[in-house]
């Protein structure tokens, strides 16, 4: 599978320099991370993969609630370089569409605020299914715009700016996850700033046999 374009990686390398700014983390990402951590606490897991882990803030927190291995994957060296200063790991440079992980190696796959950047959502979901054990959990948090028109307009704007992204609506997310071989258990909006217009929704699903 061809890797993502160089400028895609460069965009995130650049972003990594300011990614950990506390005000952004506290208002935008922390509420999402807390919602995912609550899901992780609900059920024991030994092998957790964080795909699109960024600078590894959630990955590191997950290391505190999981009794086992938490591994972070990201395509940006800039993001990963910052992640390596955290105590957990390993940290792996990888495209979400082709994870360097054997089949059925993970109990949980989490991905927060990264799914919209993946170039092929269905391929990413198939990859998550491949690496999960049967019955394993998928926890994806991403902005799910209320209206399809808004999702398309935002996607077109980003594509014109040279950085394609696509945010599925909540019902589309459910349909795609189920089509990839998961059973969706719940979809919970996260309470945070701008959450009314651009709600991040945590979709929790289980790999079917
Ligand atoms: C907004 S950041 C989110 C980081 C982290 N999950 C968090 O919640 O703080 C999106 C991350 O997705 C990564 N990413 C984008 N496309 C990717 C891909 N195809 N494969 C792996 N990581 C990707 C970026 O490098 C970036 O670190």
CATH names the topology as: Rossmann fold
Instruction: Tell me the fraction of residues in β-strands, as a range.
Output: 15-25%
CATH domain class name? Alpha Beta
Tally the structural domains: 1
Q: Sheet with the most strands?
A: 7 strands, mixed
CATH superfamily heading: Vaccinia Virus protein VP39
Structural class by SSE content = alpha/beta
Low-confidence regions: none
Description:
There is one protein chain. This protein is α/β, with parallel strands linked by helices and 209 residues long. It has a single domain (6-196), classed as Rossmann fold. The protein is built from seven helices and seven strands; from the N terminus they run ααβαβαββαβααββ. It has a seven-stranded mixed beta sheet with strand order 3-2-1-4-5-7-6, with helices on both faces. Helix 5 (121-131) links the parallel strand 4 and strand 5. Helix 2 (22-41) packs parallel to helix 3 (57-65). It is globular and about 40 Å long. The mean pLDDT is 92. It binds S-adenosylmethionine. Residues 4, 12, 29, 52-54, 57-58, 74-76, 79, 95-96, 112-114, 117-118 line the site of S-adenosylmethionine.
Please describe the structure with a list of short key phrases separated by commas or semicolons.
alpha/beta, Rossmann fold, globular, binds S-adenosylmethionine
């Amino acid at each position: 599978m061809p890797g993502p374009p160089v400028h895609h990686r460069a965009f995130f390398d650049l972003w990594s320099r300011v990614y950990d700014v506390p005000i952004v983390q506290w208002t935008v990402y922390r509420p999402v991370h807390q919602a995912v951590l609550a899901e992780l606490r609900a059920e024991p897991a030994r092998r957790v993969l964080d795909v699109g882990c960024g600078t590894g803030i959630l990955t590191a927190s997950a290391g505190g609630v999981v009794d086992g291995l938490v591994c972070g994957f990201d395509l940006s060296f800039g993001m990963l370089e910052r992640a390596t200063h955290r105590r957990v790991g390993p940290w792996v440079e990888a495209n979400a569409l082709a994870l360097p992980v054997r089949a059925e190696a993970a109990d949980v796959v989490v991905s927060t605020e990264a799914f919209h950047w993946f170039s092929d959502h269905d391929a990413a979901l198939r990859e998550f299914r491949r690496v999960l054990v049967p019955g394993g959990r998928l926890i994806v948090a991403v902005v799910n715009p209320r209206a399809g028109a808004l999702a398309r307009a935002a996607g077109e704007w980003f594509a014109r700016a040279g950085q394609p992204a696509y945010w599925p609506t909540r019902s589309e997310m459910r349909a795609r996850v189920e089509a990839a071989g998961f059973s969706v258990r719940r979809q919970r909006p996260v309470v945070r700033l701008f959450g009314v217009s651009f709600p991040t929704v945590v979709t929790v699903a289980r790999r079917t046999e």
